[in-house]
Specification:
Length: about 400
């Protein structure tokens, strides 16, 4: 594996004594390692030993002019390609979950855009406490990875879950996080979720898209080192780690946001379910039914929205543009026609008549439809798996150019 820059954050638990061993394991694998300590961590491990094993000065203080002069805390956050928090105490996990930044370690964790891996260590009852578990859930939803804790005899005398994983196991988990930065450089623009076209102050024309597929694509692109802009329609999903998000609600707003980011993008993936039509007239008040008799009909006049995918494909130049196709019948033929009409590089086609894949669920079964007529059918996969397969294809396509 190519050498990478790993920042090790050490918080104040007894397991901090294993930190020098972790530094040595990571360095043996060829990586550059820098360490930072919380004030409490210094009670369990000496900065001097960490400096000796890492070959770098150790950072502890947010406001120490001498330390900041060498590399400031934002510089440190930007330097890291991966941050490993080991041990991660219950207190540190709580601070991370709630965005506190009251010392060097928490400030860097808030400022970094690198992926984060936590290795928790604490008493078994602190681990199983609903507060800790809720914090872990927040961190998980934010895309932060975790290794351990293991079960066993704990330093506090209790038995159970709470032991920090062995340094060798943490180093292996870190290596898994450090996938080759194959997309470092390109800017990836992703659209996700449905749009909602207002009828009046409370009603809209929308669709059932959850945004999960597009969010998985944005997360995968960020994971591969790309700078990612995610234009999100109607969805309640949390922003994947390291992704810039722009929220929109209508198709016209989505078009504006896409066009604003398009020039700087090298890869565009349009996973959004854009509403094809919007009401011609929109009332900013609620339309009342008082004047109408029961059973009386009402006509809603709709006008077609601009096709964003078609518009950007026409001027894509060297960019790679991927579209999606939601089809209920004759999936391949319909996707092939869509590909030809819109002029993109690849269509990811969904059969929306399936109930186990596609809208709202966590898995998807897709077909990759290529301009040369080739069709690749993927098995049912988690949406993250579909996203990984998609970027493998996009990277190959760009290499071949
Ligand atoms: N799309 C778009 N702008 C629109 C409509 C769709 O950019 N106004 C994009 C979607 O983001 C998707 C692709 O076009 O990448 C195909 O969307 P889909 O809803 O499957 O097809 P439509 O173009 O809407 O065609 P139809 O409704 O006839 O299937």
């Amino acid at each position: 594996m190519e050498p990478r820059r790993i920042l090790l954050a050490i918080s104040g638990g007894i397991a901090a004594y294993k930190a020098p061993e972790l530094v040595r394991t990571l360095r043996r694998a060829g990586h550059e390692v820098r360490c930072m300590l919380t004030p409490e961590a210094e009670r369990f491990v000496s900065g001097l030993s960490l400096q000796a094993v890492s070959g770098e000065s150790v950072r502890r203080d947010l406001f120490d002019a001498g330390e900041e002069g060498e590399i400031d805390h934002i510089g440190l956050a930007d330097w890291a390609e991966l941050v490993v928090v080991a041990p991660a105490t219950a207190n540190l996990l709580a601070k991370m979950a709630h965005g506190l930044a009251d010392d060097l370690v928490t400030a860097v964790l808030l400022a970094t855009r690198a992926p984060i891996l936590v290795a928790p260590a604490m008493n078994v009852n602190m681990w199983s406490h609903p507060a800790t578990q809720a914090n872990l859930e927040i961190l998980r939803a934010r895309g932060i990875s975790r290794i351990g804790p293991d079960a066993g005899e704990l330093a506090c005398g209790w038995e159970g879950l709470g032991r920090m994983s062995d340094p060798a196991v943490i180093a292996e988990a870190a290596a898994n996080q450090l996938v080759p930065s194959s997309l470092a450089g390109p800017r990836v623009l992703v659209t996700a979720g449905g749009t909602a076209e207002p009828i009046d102050a409370v009603r809209s024309v929308t669709n059932r898209s959850s945004g999960k597929m597009g969010f998985a694509i944005a997360a995968e692109a960020a994971h591969r080192g790309a700078q990612v802009t995610l234009v999100a329609g109607i969805t309640g999903l949390p922003t994947p780690h390291g992704v810039d998000r722009i929220d929109v609600s209508t198709a016209l707003q989505m078009r504006d946001a896409v066009l604003a980011s398009f020039d700087d993008s090298t890869i565009v993936v349009k996973a959004a379910a854009v509403a094809d039509f919007r009401p011609v007239n929109t009332s900013d008040r609620k339309i009342k039914k008082e004047q109408m008799a029961e059973g009386e009909s009402m006509t809603l006049e709709l006008v077609q929205n601009p096709d964003i995918l078609q518009e950007i494909s026409a001027k894509k130049g060297e960019r790679t543009v991927v579209g999606f196709a939601a089809e209920s019948h004759e999936v391949v033929a319909a996707a092939q026609r869509k590909l030809a009409r819109k002029g993109c590089d690849l269509i990811v086609a969904n059969d929306i008549s399936r109930t186990d894949a596609g809208f709202e669920v966590d898995e998807n079964a897709v077909l990759f439809v290529w301009p040369n007529g080739e069709v690749e059918e993927l098995p049912l996969l988690p949406k993250a798996g579909v996203a990984a397969q998609l970027f493998d294809r996009i990277e190959k396509l760009r290499e071949g150019r």
